[in-house]
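The following block was generated as part of the benchmark described in Methods. Ligand: adenosine-5'-triphosphate.
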Amino acid sequence: MFMRTDLTESRPMIEVTGAGKMYGSHPALHEVDWQVTEGEWWGVVGPNGSGKSTLLQLLAATEHPSAGSIQIDGRDISSYTRKDLSRMIAVLQQDGLPAISYPVRDVVEMGRYPYQNWLGKETSDGAAVVDRVLEELGLSDMAERPLDALSGGQRQRVALAKVMAQEPRLLLLDEPTTFLDIKYQLQFMELLSAWRQKNHITIVAVLHDLNLAAQFCDHILALREGTCVGNGTPHSLMTEENIREIFRVSPAMVSHPDNGLPQLLLRREKK
Ligand SMILES: Nc1ncnc2c1ncn2[C@@H]1O[C@H](COP(=O)(O)OP(=O)(O)OP(=O)(O)O)[C@@H](O)[C@H]1O
């Protein structure tokens, strides 16, 4: 039913082969095959409980597959040390940072941890990276302010700055815009987009907002009940029929007036 994405010749950044995950006797993921090429931006979508966060946890190596394999940059994920992984992969959750009283700069500096030696010293110029990231995200003016004096939206921008300071090649995001208003949602996605273009990083983002996913991601992976049920570009995947199959709702699909990308309008259930 669904179209597969054309993959380029370059080596996959992520290769998921027959991956499954059981929690006790509950299968959260089942036989997932998926490849992500370096530099791509994937949205992972699906109903509640379909296995999106579980997939992200397997990619972050915070959970291990019960079946199949996960390769990152050509090597089995289990062969990397935690420090190797933290130099390569950064993870940002929906509520990225708690409202603590640490100054913004200190929090962003924590992103440099993977580059510090056992004395807590960095060989590269971490302070310059932190300054640049603060500048790029418009946070320089609030660098000395404590996190608990910022709004939720500003705090999520600091969370993004922290993962940017980590200089990962792969960024994993779990519903990063959930608590943001529409202006901050857009701003957050645009910042990611600019950063990805500049640094050619790979992004995998679990997103509930299909319209945002269609506008920003090049590819979408759809999960339902732990199984991959679709994998393609927003144009090929976001059709009325597919949305009905995946989410069990019947939307009206329209083309975005700016770029022709598919956008979804919810329809009320007929009584
Ligand atoms: N640590 C766990 N122990 C037991 N079951 C779990 C655990 N984590 C997730 N599950 C179960 O695995 C399934 C997939 O959960 P997961 O959180 O990956 O889904 P999701 O698609 O991210 O959901 P949501 O959109 O609601 O965040 C669900 O049935 C969930 O209850």
